[in-house]
Every structure is written in structure tokens, then in C-alpha cells.
Write the C-alpha cells for this entry.
Amino acid sequence: MKNKLFYFGDYQGTRRNTGGGTLLRVPSAAERAGDLSATGYPIYDPASGPPASRTRFPGDVIPANRLSAAAQNLLKLIPMPNTAAALDQPNFASSGGVKFNDDAFNVRIDHFTTDKLHLFGRYSLQDFRMVAPGSFGLVAGGPGLDASGSTSAYAGASESRNHSVAAGFDYNMRPDLLTDFRFGWFRYKVFGQPNGIGTTPALDAGIPGVNVDKEFNSGMPAFFINGYGSGLFKFGYALGVNGCNCPLIQNEDQFQFVNNWSKVAGNHSIKFGADIRRARNLRVPSDRRRYGTRLFSPGRRLAIRTLRL
């Protein structure tokens, strides 16, 4: 409508697939079979008595019938070494891509209803989606794949959707008196979760009481094997593994009402008004994973604990 109704709209979409990689340590075929002679640690039989009098396994090799079935099942999800390296050096090179897509649009309408009344309205939407695989795949997780080669890069899935609405009017009541009213609302909502949501890998491996449902307690728990491979062997999802504070739910919104008045009195201009806002924020983080963290620290029985979980 000429000189009455105006509208505006825009859209922006971005599709990114960024490559990256990292160097890690994974157990060798011999270590997975119980042969820990190359580790340099004396390996004792934990069932042979108290720590001070335990018997050392011959050749530091754990018999096959003494290996943890759960550990063996989990190791099936961890790739074999693909490079040769010393014990405390990386022997696995991983690479892949991180997908980060976003869409955004805005629409606005202005209507000059009369010479005294002007109306407007606007709506904006932003939608972000990120999928970052771990070095050991979507289920096993592990450090993410980043162009910097970081061994703690993010891995997981993140979705964020932001809404923003604004509307209002200004009205010239008299030549010397003007008022305007604005209403605004926005919502910021983010949901971060590990990859492999809905799967039960720990339960499937034989670890009870971990994957108790297929939502918040699904996916791979975090495993830290300290003292082995310079701390380069860790898998699952957690802040210390790949920066995944997940599942993370955050829902924030705010309502705003603004009314201003302008009064012209001779050479003076008087302004007054009110700005009322109501904000709400819900944040449910998971700094410690809801299905637990398994930590194996260095000690006299490091290799036994590593394999036996």
C-alpha cells in the first residue's frame, strides 16, 4: 500500500563442514589380549592375596580367562592403532568433519495507519545445529576432531533455537504530546547431548546400573585411564573427555513492556515513561555425567584395573 504499508524480510543460511583431527593413544593388540609386558609395570594377580604379598603374573601377561568381559566388549568399540609409537606416545591418528549449520530470518511490517498513528511488528528466528563426532565414532566418543589438533576438542550434538518478537506503536495525541509503546519477547533455548543418544553401550558391554534409560542415562559413560599413554586414552562423553557438558538444557526468556511520553512545553521537552521486564531462566547442566564417570588412576595395579574395569 503506497505510503501506508511497508514490509521487509531477509534470510541467511550457512552450511559448514570443518575438517580436523587428533593424535591419541589406544591399547595395542597385545595389551588387549592381556600381554602387558611392554608397559614396564610389574603385573600382579589381585586374587592372590593382600597387596604386599601378591604373586606376579609370569611375563606380566594376564591369562585370557582372567580378562574382564566388560572391558573386552568396550574395547571392541575402540579402533586398533594405525601408527607405530612408543608406549607413552600417540599411536592412533583420527580425522573427520564437524558439521555446524545455522538458519536465520527476520520479517518486519510498518503500517502508517493515520497521520497520527504508526504501527510496527517484527519477528526473528535463529536456529543452530552442530554435530561433532568423537575420535572413536559416535557411540564410543572420545576427544573431538578440531583443526587445532586438540586432544580435548568438543564432541557431541547441540541444538539452539532463538526467537525474538517486537511490536508497538507511536501516537501523536496532540502537536505537543507524543506517546509510544513497545512490547518485546525473546527466548533462548539450547539442548546439548552426547552422540549415541538412545544407545546403551555400557549396559550392552555388561556393566549394570549405568544405562538405566534411553534418554538422560543413555550413551557411553566417561572413561579416564590415567597414567597410560600420557593421558591420551579416554573415551565416552564428559567435560574432561571432549568438553561435552551434556545433556545440557537451558531455556531463557524475557518479556518487556515499554511506554514513553514526550511533552513539549515552549523551549523545553519533558520525557518520562516506564520499562518493565520479566526474565526467566532454567538451566539444567550435567557437569558430571548422569550415567557416571569411570576413573582409573595410576598405582601398583594400574594395568589390572585398566583391563578389569
Summary: The beta strands are 5-24, 92-112, 117-132, 156-174, 177-193, 222-225, 234-235, 248-265, 268-284, 293-296.
